[in-house]
Amino acid sequence: MIYYSNEKKRKGALFTGKAVRVVKKNCSDYLSDLKTIALYLVTFTKWTFLACLMGIIGGTVGALFFKAITAVTELRQLNGWLLYLLPLGGVVIVGIYALCNVEGLGTNRVFESVRSGKNVPLLLTPAIFAGSCITHLLGGSAGREGAALQLGGSIASGLGKLFRMGEKSRHILVMTGMSALFSAVFGTPLCAAVFAVEVVSVGYIYTSGLYPCLVSSLSAYFVSKAFGIKGEHFTVDLVPDVDIVMVLRVAAVAAVAAVVSIVFCKAMHGAEHIFSKIKNPYLRAVIGGAIIICLSLLVGNDTYNGGGIHIIEGIFHNGTVIHEAFLLKIVFTAITIASGYKGGEIVPTLFIGATLGSSIGYLVGLPVPFSAALGIAAMFCGVTNCPLATVLLCLELFGAEGLIFYVLAAFMSFLLSGYYSLYTGQKIVFSKLCDDTVNINGH
Q1: Per-residue pLDDT tens over the stretch 328-360
Q2: Same domain, yes or no, for 260 and 219?
Q3: What is the dihedral of CA 423, 428, 429, 433, to 10 degrees?
């Protein structure tokens, strides 16, 4: 204990001690703030570099993938006899996957890698690249964006291993890979960035991935443009004024599309269950390819072979309406993917949405291109459960005019489509009916 000669000295000493403590605390807070600022700057620099690198690699691979898919599609359209080689192509695809030791891996594995420590093998990149090209060359019904997600996930996992990144950082890097490839092959950088952080766990957005995903998405978009890749854009003429009658018509299109999105998801998973009973994957591919050949001959044209982006363009340019097209595309796509052929489900989803929307819109008195855009918005949101990404997709595909209608269609479909999803690896975290967690997989 310290004794003071008088009260004044004692109070002075107490005041001095308090001042010292205040100074020490301020210095400690200042140093803490400097460490926090340094941490943010380091993190910002780290993700700017990694996201740009992922964007450059992803943009290059995505551009090459886009050009390859375009080339083989044009080759098939000029040589209809290639369709008859589809069963053989299926055998080759199964062999490639066996050789790369990636049998059974796909988009669901990419989603799981974001939520857990599972890696996406780098050999999935050449497997899905070659498999998708073979599928499109020989007339299977598939798209390219699902394959892009797998390409991005596998390349990003490889980079994560190369840089010896921690598990949580690898999760973000995988999302940047998804964004980069999606943006490169479809030309919608905003949608691609948000889709990657929204699609894995419905109701939960990986906000730490927003900046890296946007940087990788934009980088990939600029790289793909340098390769001459043009983003998809559809012109929507005659957007109606907002009134109660028009809102009710839009709601009708959205409600029907929500039901069809459930049908599409159930058809995809149901076909997979049926074909899984054929234990030999080579035989499975041969049977699936043979069925696609028979269906194509019955239809009498190649409308439902490949992704079908030219059919979508025809709807917006010429106002073409094919009432049965959405059902036939569901059948073709479900059989193609379930029997082992590779590609994506997003372009078929847009095909189904455009043809369904134009058909319903025609019946209720809406302009065909406008109703096709509504169908795309509702179908995409219904099968992916990504309302925010859908809004940005519509903005980038159709422009701002009519956005209120597209948002209405998307949000209605999101609610009415329940917990169905194209991706069984997608986790539904929050209920669509109330403020509660459910934590179930899409079905």
Answers
A1: 999 999 999 999 999 889 999 999 999 999 999
A2: no
A3: 160
